[in-house]
Amino acid sequence: MELVDRMLAGDQIALAKLMTIVENRSTDVAAIMKQVYPRTGRAYKIGITGPPGAGKSTIVDRLTALLRAEGCTVGIVAVDPTSPFSGGALLGDRIRMQQHYLDRGVFIRSMGTRGSHGGLARATKDVIRLLDAFGKDYILVETVGVGQTELDIMSASDTVVVVIVPESGDAIQAMKAGLMEIADVFVVNKADRGGAERVKAELETMLRMSPPRKLSWEPPVILAEAERGNGIQEIYEAINRHRRELEASSKLREQRQEQEKTELIEIIEELIHERLTARASSDGLLAKYVVRVQRGELDPYTAANEILSSEKVLSELVAR
């Protein structure tokens, strides 16, 4: 595809057009990903998640400035909430990180979640891959919200930074164990507010009580005031320490292999879902099951098990 060739040659307009194609889930996505895949795997991916108002965008902005000062190129993917009614996204990075817009070493892309409850659009991983193939050294992925459904950030990042604020004190006690496990770096931002030291101490206590990790890495808890630039260097150094430990233990390769496995399963699920949805009203066999369920003659679980237990029926339904 000509657009891919232009993108691989350094054309940012081609990159933006490819991202639009990917985000719209065009039929060309598979061909695009096949062409760029051999050029991926070099970028280091940092996921930054946390509740609204925690200052994630400011941290991304400051980290980007620091990375650029060191001569690194940066891709930023800002995942904003999509309205369940209008389908529109807030796309906040249009008004933030303005200092980087004229810097050709930085590429910023907003994406709506488009119904993905985990905070990451299905197309996000493909956009990350495009930035990787384009040659970015670092890719920063900022996601919506924080909670159990945010665990999918782990499948798109090498290092996960969880940002909270001093007012999150009570919420820390309700944090899911899974979230505690995926965070590689904790940041208590807006630390000039009261309660920051207490929240830091609570987090450190919870981390000591958490089950041992596969990697002998103890997530640091960093106090920061991103608006003033305080703590940004410490966050960057913590990310680099985590990266060095991953690389030294071969865990980075293992982690990425697990991510590829997860993504493969997700793609298969997505394709099967699309095909079944398309055939639900037109395919004679599936339509019969749908009608029987709608009439109350068959419950959905029994119908699903009957379909899945028949290789012949299943192969007919998922075949092109």
Short description:
By secondary structure, the chain is α/β, with parallel strands linked by helices. It has helices at 2-8, 12-23, 29-36, 56-69, 124-134, 169-173, 177-182, 196-209, 232-248, 251-279, 284-294, 300-309, 311-318, and strands at residues 44-49, 74-80, 106-112, 138-142, 159-164, 185-188, 221-223.
Strand content: 5-15%
User: Mean pLDDT score, rounded?
Assistant: 81
Reading off the top of the CATH hierarchy, the class of the largest domain is best stated as Alpha Beta
Largest sheet properties: 7 strands, parallel
Radius of gyration: 22 Å
Q: Which strands sit side by side, in order, in the main sheet? A: 3-2-4-1-5-6-7
Q: What class would the helix/strand composition place it in?
A: alpha/beta
Number of helices: 13
Helix % is 40-55%
Q: Please tell me the CATH architecture of the largest domain by its name.
A: 3-Layer(aba) Sandwich
The named CATH superfamily of the largest domain: P-loop containing nucleotide triphosphate hydrolases
| Unreliable stretches | 82-94, 115-119
Q: Could you walk me through the main structural features you see in this protein, from its secondary elements to its overall organization?
A:
- The chain is built from 13 helices and 7 strands.
- Strand 6, helix 8 (196-209) and strand 7 form a beta-alpha-beta unit.
- With 320 residues, it is an alpha/beta fold.
- 35% of the residues are buried.
- 48% of the residues lie in helices and 12% in strands.
- Helix 1 crosses helix 2.
- It is globular and about 65 Å long.
- It has helices spanning 2-8, 12-23, 29-36, 56-69, 124-134, 169-173, 177-182, 196-209, 232-248, 251-279, 284-294, 300-309, 311-318, and strands spanning 44-49, 74-80, 106-112, 138-142, 159-164, 185-188, 221-223.
- Strands 3-2-4-1-5-6-7 form a 7-stranded parallel sheet, with helices on both faces.
- Mean pLDDT is 81; it is low at 82-94 and 115-119.
- The protein folds into 3 domains: 1-39; 40-248, Rossmann fold (3-Layer(aba) Sandwich), CATH 3.40.50; 262-318, no CATH class.
- The protein starts with a helix and ends with a helix.
